[in-house]
Write a structure and sequence with these properties.
Length: 325
């Protein structure tokens, strides 16, 4: 592999889990830094090409150019993914462009088999009657966050997709690692696979964002996902079979946090040093410097990354754009 020092190398958590963060283009970085078949799970959410105001990336390519780029990303992931590995690709679309997630999945997934499609639900309304007596609701329930639309043509978007790709479509999963309890206890006795009273969660995952009071403090990245989403992906694949996890678009480090929680070695790439510095802060905040393993190095060209840098100025068009994820 090519020489060079990562933006940050940390060993975090009680298992002294290694985390390497590289400040470079994902496609070039994967080619330089990772051997073929050296990653067991890739979980990522690339830019959606919706003019989101990232700090160091122009999110407004021509459609064909963008889809060609996602095809290149998919090929790069296919090279580093182990034969029995999993590639979890999170993509969302605007109500006015509902084909985007499918177009991205088709291009990025060309080298793979599509094994599962997971619906990540971020907001849901449940009627009291529909919930049933076991829920013990005294009123209808609305949970989660969404971006309201001022439109007479579209309903607001309350979900995104997680496309689960594998090389041959035959990777066994640890479905009960993120299982849910049976509502009727009699089902536990009826099904031999009901380990610990759990059943498969299925392909609908409800994971709301935490409440954001101050965007600059609580969500410094315009299109991040909660750490629980990559954590569930890693658990579903099977933590016991994980040698290394990868996020080619690591952003502010949600997937790095998820991997470190599970003790899974992790590598991530991003072109924005400010986001990577936030990732380092986030890991340090969650695991604490006193729980950081020996030999920790946090570097950027020989300097120490202790605080996010000021972001590059976005284009006038990008400044007015708002994230819908």
């Amino acid at each position: 592999m090519a020489p060079g020092r990562p933006f940050a190398h940390l060993t975090v958590g009680p298992a002294a889990t290694p985390v390497d963060l590289w400040c470079e283009d994902a496609v070039a970085g994967m080619a330089r830094r990772l051997a073929p078949g050296s990653v067991d799970v890739v979980v990522t959410s690339p830019p959606y090409n919706r003019n989101v105001p990232y700090g160091a990336y122009a999110d407004d390519r021509p459609r064909d150019d963008y889809l060609g780029w996602t095809r290149t990303v998919g090929a790069a992931v296919a090279r580093v993914l182990a034969p029995r590995g999993s590639f979890f690709l999170n993509v969302g679309g605007a109500p006015s462009d509902p084909w985007l997630p499918y177009d991205v999945a088709r291009e990025a997934g060309r080298p793979f088999r599509l094994q599962n499609v997971i619906h990540w639900v971020k907001s849901i309304a449940i009627g009291r009657a529909a919930a049933g007596r076991a829920a013990a609701l005294d009123r209808d329930l609305a949970v989660g966050h969404y971006r309201p639309l001022v439109s007479d043509r579209y309903v607001h978007g309350a979900l995104e997709y997680v496309f689960h790709f594998t090389h041959r479509g035959d990777v066994p999963l640890d479905r009960l690692a993120i299982g849910v309890p049976y509502q009727d206890p009699t089902n536990v006795a009826r099904w031999a696979g009901a380990r610990g009273g759990l059943r498969c969660r299925g392909n609908t995952w409800f994971l709301p964002y935490p409440t954001i009071r101050f965007a600059r403090r609580d969500r410094p990245h315009p299109a991040s996902f909660p750490p629980e989403l990559p954590e569930w992906c890693l658990r579903l694949h099977g933590v016991g079979r994980l040698r290394r996890a990868l996020d080619p678009f690591v952003g502010i480090g949600a997937s790095a946090v998820a991997a470190a929680r599970l003790g899974v070695p992790f590598v991530g790439f991003d072109v924005d040093p400010a986001y990577l510095a936030t990732s380092v802060e986030r890991l340090t905040k969650e695991f604490g410097p006193d729980r950081t393993g020996p030999g920790t190095v946090v570097e950027d060209g020989g300097g120490t990354a202790t605080a996010p840098r000021r972001r590059a100025a976005a284009s006038p068009r990008a400044r007015t754009a708002r994230s819908t994820t």
